[in-house]
Fold these 3 entries.
Entry 1:
Amino acid sequence: MPKTGRNDPCPCGSGKKYKHCCLKKDRAAELAPAIAQRVALQAQKANQVALRKDYQEESSNAVVDLVHAGRLDEAEQAARELLVRYPEVHDGYDRLGMVYEARGQFREAADCYRKVIEFTRANPEDYDAGFVDSFLELIVKLEACATEEERAVNDDDRPG
Ligand SMILES: [Zn+2]
């Protein structure tokens, strides 16, 4: 079937030129499958992203549960898994910090929270200032705990 030219009479028999009649409609019909496919692909991608986000959040929550249950070795493993699997979020460092905190390893915990802050600075559009502030406060507190503990150990060692 030869293609109707823009200035040819419209094949629908309206008597108008094709470009003033059915051209637009026919173009849309031609493009429809490609557009539908693109929409479907986008929806699929959005689903995958949503699913990944769901898994990531579940895994992150699982670490919190493990910490609260006192299962710290499992929690650490799960936190490290988070770091590897989901490098697009700060959760891995956050959760690893929680594990160290629960173990009383204050300096290691502070280091993890510094990584969280580093991450937020690399992705500033995803975070508000309050988020960073809360981690900064936590780091100060943890460093103070670590210093106090070290002082207590030194006092114990002192003779007399
Ligand atoms: Zn027409």
Entry 2:
Amino acid sequence: MRVTERGEGVSQDHYEVLGVERGASADEVKKAYRKLALKYHPDRSQEPDAEARFKLINEAYAVLSDPEKRQRYDRYGHSEAVTNPFQGGVNAADLKDIFGQDLFNELFASLFGGAGRARGRVKRDIEASLSVPLSLVQTGGEATALVHRSASCERCHGHGTKSGRPPKACASCRGTGQARVQRGFIVMAQPCPACQGRGADLSQACLDCRGAGQSQREVEVKVEVPAGVESGQTLRLAGEGELARGQRGDLYLHVQVEPHERFEREGADLHLELTLDFHELALGASVDVSLLSGRSVKLKIPEGTQPGQVLRLRGKGLPSLEARGPGDLLVTVETRVPKALTAAERELIVALKSLSEERAADSAEDAPAPGPLERLRLWAIEALGGSP
Ligand SMILES: [Zn+2]
Ligand SMILES: [Zn+2]
């Protein structure tokens, strides 16, 4: 009985290894095995002893899944040493049944057949950029990313056949995808060489994907964008990456917020330039400001507002990703000068001009006599032909 050879601190008892009762049904054994094999598969697990644990799990399953071996084990408390549970004990058909074709391909296919396990991880995670309009930053919601990756072949609808219809079963393996190979007195299951383990007759393969059922192309991927997202942030979409060994990796989308023609963003604050008439600044006014959402809000222009002055609309900016409240909308007020005046307007502006000249003269009279520096300035302006 192998008790202390290896796996320190880990029970060698097959039932304990799988964590099932001694009276566990075949189904319970299967379920426990599936869970543990996924947890400790050396390609997936980060545990330092994953490989040793994985081996024990498979040995335990090889014995407990076989009624005859299990009975012997129950009676004598041990079984013959299992040197390789994938020879004779655990077989491919059983594993496909337990894990499904895709997971089987990823985790176990390479354990069968003499070629040995393909080393090295397959790169499945991919990156792409996502352009987000500013209005979506405010509301959050669905956006579409264009991603170059494999997708179900359009020509054959993913079947891989020239006809575009589901393929017939492989004649060589009758659709099981397996070939049984006799090695000495051990029968091993290997991927069927005629169909590369797919179980399908692909002798008349699709010309676009050569039978793979997948082709590289531009696909649209829908993504939920959180409100307040910023350029340079990355959104991760699990299971939207590249397909390899039956499993899709993750897609990483790098966000780029599109510039807006009216609003400029600064963190959660928005900046807007608003051009008003001279009289609105001089007399004060209440004006409508249309927001990013399309709704509009009243902005009070105080009397005597200067061009370039910034007025703040609290909470009318963008939501922030952090828990704090929304940013502000900062409105820079500018004024416009009419290009063509009506006769009446001209008359009024001329009147305004003489009024302000009078006012300037009044304040000049009130002012104390210019000091030496001021006299110098006035002389310089006169000498240069300007007016003060
Ligand atoms: Zn076949
Ligand atoms: Zn195709």
Entry 3:
Amino acid sequence: MAIDPTRVPRFAHGSRVPGWDDAADLTKAPAVVPDAATTPVPDELRVEIEAYMARYPDFRSAAIPALHAAQRLHGWCSPTAIEQVACVMRLTPGYLTAVATFYDMFDTHPKGRHDVYVCTNISCSLRGADELYEAMLSAAGDDPDFDVKSFECLGACDIAPMISLDGEYIGPLVPEDCDQIVADVKAGRPVLEAKQLRHRPAAVSAGAQPSQPPTPDRAASGPTASHNEVEGPTAGERGPERHATPRGDG
Ligand code: FES
């Protein structure tokens, strides 16, 4: 299928994702570490951040999970959220802002509660991602609860075209799935459960024997259904949760 170049929007810096579009304000005074006496931090956030800091030899390695915790609590990496993380970690807000603006999965502007990333990189594009993206935008409409964005390779090309919905990987999808996705989210139901990556068995090591035939659900889950012929850990069991992804083309 030929790709129509007019359907591949690019931003001024050449990428298909909005990257570093906000210039740094060089007139601002250098930030200082917030004063703990005058910076209120919710107890549960403080406890969570301190637990992350204890995991690493260099406490600054906890910046990403700490920002995730603040984003979960505040809905986005607001100046207040960053100030609170900075206060607990004894870092400057500028240090954490540099991290938050570098990674796509942090938002430094207000956004909808539900993150819908539609992968539009090459594998997904070849399988109809641009149509899927348009269908997802149209299904979400003006609902402020949905934050629909295109994304560069979410690393699940075997289920292309796919989306990440609040961290749940779902695919392969067709544009007609989008209304159901929105309806499931609004109803608080699991979203297209049969197409969730976590329910797909992974390939197992050489020599393993098939122990169970695929269920109808699994067999229907897409063009890579042959992966399902052997038992193995599900995707959710085989690796850590995906976290922030650096901005830029994948
Ligand atoms: S191109 Fe879409 S997941 Fe890799």
